[in-house]
């Protein structure tokens, strides 16, 4: 919820600076980063709270067992989709940290091993040229990509939790 206030403050400053001062170069890109953070980290919370929108045209009249069956199917598809997103975000984050090969998971293994055995300096040697945005602000991309990866991971964990709950409801357990 507070992420919206951060984004509104950034956009308010953007409007003020464009009207009265020299326009700020960082405001639009930082507002986009704030919105991505709000959206990606808000998804797992919404799933946990049961706040996602459903089509109640048919769903409301179904029995609890049928609802759980349909939910289990859709959550299973969601888990597959989130797995693809997580792998893609891991690859994109590795790219933003300077890794340009085809095996991003090996990069993270090498990065962790270098950090544990040699500290931050050794980990810095594993990383390459850090990716920056192509805007005038030239922000580093790795922070937002790490946030996206973390959000996809949290969403995947919550989806697995929902699948387990749905399977329990199908088998008649009270949750």
Please give a quick description of this structure.
This protein has one domain. 75% of the residues lie in helices and 0% in strands.
Helix content: over 70%
Largest sheet: none
User: Which stretches are low in confidence, meaning pLDDT under 50 for 5 or more residues running?
Assistant: none
Radius of gyration, in Å, reads: 21 Å
Q: Care to count the β-strands?
A: 0
Beta-strand residue fraction = under 5%
- Give the overall shape: flat
The H/E string reads HHHHHH
Distance between the termini: 28 Å
Query: What class, by secondary structure content?
Result: mainly alpha
Discrete helix count: 6
* Integer average pLDDT: 88
Can you tell me the number of structural domains? 1
Subcellular location: Cell inner membrane
Transmembrane segments: 33-51, 72-100, 140-160
Domain Tripartite ATP-independent periplasmic transporters DctQ component: 7-92
Keywords: Cell inner membrane, Cell membrane, Membrane, Transmembrane, Transmembrane helix, Transport
Write structural notes for this entry.
Part of the tripartite ATP-independent periplasmic (TRAP) transport system. Its main location: membrane. The protein has helices at residues 2-20, 27-49, 56-59, 64-96, 104-126, 142-170. It is an all-alpha fold and 175 residues long. It has one domain. Helix 2 packs parallel to helix 6 (142-170) and helix 4 runs antiparallel to helix 6 (142-170). The longest helix is centred in the middle third of the chain and has 33 residues, at 64-96. It starts with a helix and ends in a 5-residue tail after the last helix.
């Amino acid at each position: 919820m507070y992420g919206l206030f951060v984004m509104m403050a950034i956009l308010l400053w953007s409007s003020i600076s464009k009207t009265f001062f020299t326009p700020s170069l960082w405001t639009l890109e930082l507002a986009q980063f704030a919105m991505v953070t709000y959206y990606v980290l808000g998804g797992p919370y919404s799933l946990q709270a049961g706040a996602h929108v459903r089509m109640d045209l048919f769903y409301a009249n179904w029995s609890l067992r049928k609802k759980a069956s349909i939910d289990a199917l859709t959550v299973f598809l969601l888990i597959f989709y989130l797995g693809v997103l997580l792998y893609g975000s891991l690859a994109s984050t590795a790219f933003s940290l300077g890794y340009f090969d085809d095996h991003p998971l090996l990069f993270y293994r090498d990065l962790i091993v270098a950090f544990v055995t040699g500290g931050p300096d050794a980990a810095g040697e594993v990383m390459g040229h850090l990716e920056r945005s192509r805007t005038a602000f030239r922000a580093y991309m790795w922070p937002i990509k790490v946030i996206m990866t973390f959000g996809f991971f949290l969403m995947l964990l919550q989806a697995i939790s929902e699948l387990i709950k749905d399977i329990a409801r199908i088998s008649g357990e009270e949750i």
